[in-house]
């Protein structure tokens, strides 16, 4: 599984005429110029596209943490009409492929004038559209003893105070899991960003890598692999930093 990644790292240090000659990992003379060439290949430095990705990722994480946690609390603790039906509808949305809903979504965002902005990539996250994370948090909250809620209610706390003061602090593993998965999926997202972002200055990292290949008749593969390695660094750092929270969020079921 790791061999293609290692081959990409090694290939990022090879001259173009040697990259596809061998599938081995032997490296004799590192060619560090690939990184400088790739970094400055566009009208903007590659950091510009990484900042764009960071903006989208930050908005998506904040939206999912806030909206999905509120929706999960409602499904796990509140009683309202047709609760089971709405929960089933929410789960069904997980099965819908993006290609089914992308056309009506694009028409809607086009009418709002949001095409070629980051809004279509961020605003839906604040509307609890990621059912997977809602389901994850619902299962986590159901594992928290209801006696905690009842004790807080006796002291006069309402749902808002119970959620923000009691439930939310106990949900740290689930919130961290949501943040990590949202970061990885949004940072690596290509299809949705390709649909909504048309201005090269608005491109995110995946779109910049695609443009790198398309803009030249003879592709500088060494620079492409070099920038691919650079784009993977934030993903590895986030995963390694939050790995313990990720394991706790998936393996545990709530309060102890």
UniProtKB/TrEMBL annotation:
Keyword Transmembrane helix: yes
Protein name stated in the entry: Putative sugar ABC transporter, permease protein
Pfam families noted in UniProt: BPD_transp_1
Organism encoding this protein: Streptomyces lincolnensis
Localization of this protein: Cell membrane
GO cellular component, one term: plasma membrane
The organism's taxonomic lineage, starting at the top: Bacteria, Bacillati, Actinomycetota, Actinomycetes, Kitasatosporales
Keywords from the named record: Cell membrane, Membrane, Transmembrane, Transmembrane helix, Transport
UniProt xrefs under SUPFAM superfamilies: MetI-like (SSF161098)
């Amino acid at each position: 599984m790791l061999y293609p990644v290692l081959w990409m790292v090694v290939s990022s240090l090879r001259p173009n005429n040697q990259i596809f000659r061998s599938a081995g990992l032997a490296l004799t003379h590192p060619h560090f110029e690939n990184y400088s060439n790739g970094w400055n290949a566009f009208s903007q430095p590659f950091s510009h596209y990484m900042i764009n990705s960071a903006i989208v990722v930050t908005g998506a994480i904040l939206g999912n943490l806030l909206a999905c946690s509120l929706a999960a609390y409602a499904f796990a603790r509140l009683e309202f009409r047709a609760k089971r039906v709405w929960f089933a509808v929410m789960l069904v949305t997980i099965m819908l492929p993006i290609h089914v809903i992308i056309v009506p979504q694009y028409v809607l965002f086009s009418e709002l004038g949001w095409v070629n902005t980051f809004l279509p990539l961020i605003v839906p996250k604040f509307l609890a559209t990621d059912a997977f994370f809602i389901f994850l948090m619902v299962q986590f909250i159901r594992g928290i003893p209801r006696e905690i809620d009842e004790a807080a209610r006796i002291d006069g706390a309402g749902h808002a105070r119970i959620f923000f003061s009691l439930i939310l602090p106990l949900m740290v593993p689930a919130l961290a899991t949501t943040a990590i998965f949202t970061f990885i999926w949004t940072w690596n997202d290509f299809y949705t960003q390709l649909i909504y972002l048309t201005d090269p200055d608005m491109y995110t990292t995946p779109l910049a890598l695609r443009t790198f290949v398309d803009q030249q008749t003879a592709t500088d593969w060494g620079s492409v692999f070099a920038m691919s390695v650079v784009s993977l660094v934030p993903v590895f750092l986030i995963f390694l930093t939050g790995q313990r929270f990720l394991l706790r969020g998936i393996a545990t079921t709530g309060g102890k």
